[in-house]
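Annex B. Sample input.
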Amino acid sequence: MKYEKILSKTKLQHGKYTLIPIRKQDIQKIRKWRNDQMDILRQNKILTKLEQEDYFKKIIKRTFQENKPNCILFSFLLNDECIGYGGFVHIDWFLKRSEISFLNETNRAQNQETYKTDYSIFLKIILQIAFEQLCLNRIFTETFAFRKNTSKLLEKFGFRLEGRLKNHVMVKGNYFDSLIHGFLKQYYKKL
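Annex B, continued. Sample output.
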């Protein structure tokens, strides 16, 4: 059973989209997407198949049965096909906060309208989980400043720009700022 100790519902749907606990069958797709999109991630080397298998087996699988895991990851499906993944990372259960992450399949991520639709649906579902099931007080994101469309989408969704880490990341030999957007429980309205 995956995350059943902490989630009352482990399958959430919005139209043809579904968010379910991360599946082993999706991890190699996710590895490929991560390798394709390293420029937008805090990943500085290509992941191998073996590394991805080990990460799932030693880190992720263990979280499925924990009462207070440090991450809760989901496969993001459209018509039962995995098109992305994301969830809660660096969870602080005492302070009731977590960073959220999201990564789309590479081709979907490159089409701005598709990405906008996919990420919007993901955010609707993840906010519901954060505040209705996990009872978090705060979620936040880190977005590299060159991802202007992602920042605009977060802000349109109600996330507030809370900070800028100057020259915080290097992409292709250039430094970029990281933007921190936050969303507090008090901003949330049930869907």
